Amino acid sequence: MNIVQRNFFRLLRCGAFQTTECLEPMSVHKWNKLYQLAAVHDVQPYIYDGLKSCKQQFNLHLTDSQWNQWEVAKSNNEDNDEDELLRPDKLTNPLLNRYLQNILDDESSDLNTRRMLIKIISIARRILNEGLPLKLLIELGLTLRDKSNVINYEELAGWLKKLHFEQMAQLEATLMIDLFGLTLEEIPFADSDADRKTITVAKELAEYTNIRQDFYFSQDSDSIFVHTSNSGALLNHIKRSARYMRFIPSEAFTNFFASFAHSLTHIEE
Q: What is the pTM of this model?
């Protein structure tokens, strides 16, 4: 990680999980880059809280306009929408999606446990399509710390197994441990140890800061040839699908072809 990313994650840990971190000195330009990174990931309130907790550190030098920028971002980004209860992104695998909807519609099961399942699945869906969903990972980590005692982890483990989400849940756990300092004891749905491949992919994700890149196919009215709007996005999507095939093979495979099929809708009849 470069210095901007290192300070970025330090401030996230300070702001969201109240850790004590020592910041590295940065120029005004690099602090502006950190603000842009926070805006991309929609985590300005957590960074702002981290900045306030580190305000007395010698290496933290922000201009008055930069402090004002953070304060405005904090006030504009206050949480004003509680999660839309139990309607996440649908899975692209029809069979698994049917299992998921049956789980969500079963009112006899624990509501908090179903919400935890939704968070895990939503993070996985965004990893497949966008990269690192930091805000959702932070929210999952905070839920694990604040509401862990009301989650039925035995039931959750059964759902993850049925949906073939065990390896992806392990990847999410590894990310929370590496990025936010959570411990294995705080993540009951994780295995005792992550293998080297999981750790490697988690580190790659931490370096990835881009947001979703869409692509579509189109055909000129005077041509028989079909072309893509963004060949780089298409290639990245293929690479991402291949990378996560090990963690969630059924969904990674159908997710790519669902995106591919959607891109074909732009072709003229």
A: 0.79
